[in-house]
Specification:
231 residues, mainly alpha, 9 helices
Length: 231
Amino acid sequence: MLWVSVLAGSIAPGIALLAYFYWKDRYDAEPLHMVLKMFLTGVLIVLPIMIVQRGLMIMWGDSPITFSFVISAGVEEFFKWFVLYHIIYNHTEFDEPYDGIVYAVAVSLGFATLENVLYAFLQPATFGTLMMRALLPVSGHALFGVYMGYSLGRAKFSSGSQIKFHLWLSLLLPILWHGIYDFMLLTVPSTWIWLVVPFMLILWFRGMRYVNRANSVSPFRLLKREEEIKY
């Protein structure tokens, strides 16, 4: 059936990206049920986000700057950050810096996956449009999650004033990058849409640097090396 293919095509990118970042955890993989819980939490926040965004659009309008940095990026990233901070930040399973990335990516991709499903069924969807959405908005949400999770991980394992500093970064950095992305899509003429491609490459390059940095300071890396030496 066609609808089954459309559904599978809209869900697959989110699941594939979640698996990729989950397997990037080199030293102490998180419990799968916790990761899936945060993925489903990302799905559940779609409706309240849509309601808040609709209310803000009625009050403030939808100028490109307001929509990009406040209504879209601001609301979406705040809701993701809010559930991460209140559900995961103080959880016992959050025991190494990379865990922040895993859980933030899970929430982001839960949101992005349902958003992708809604788009696929409410708009005329083709293989090309689904592929483009996999490469741009879905992977974009995953990378915004990497930026948020990296700073959450730094906050979790910092002390003093550095905690608040990195907590603020965990909210502001994804809003900034997400807002720039949305602003480009709204203001750049369609013939220049490929300007988004180098922007996405920058997001991926910086995101993978954060992934490597978070893994490099894992407290479990020394235990892993000791085990390797024993064998």
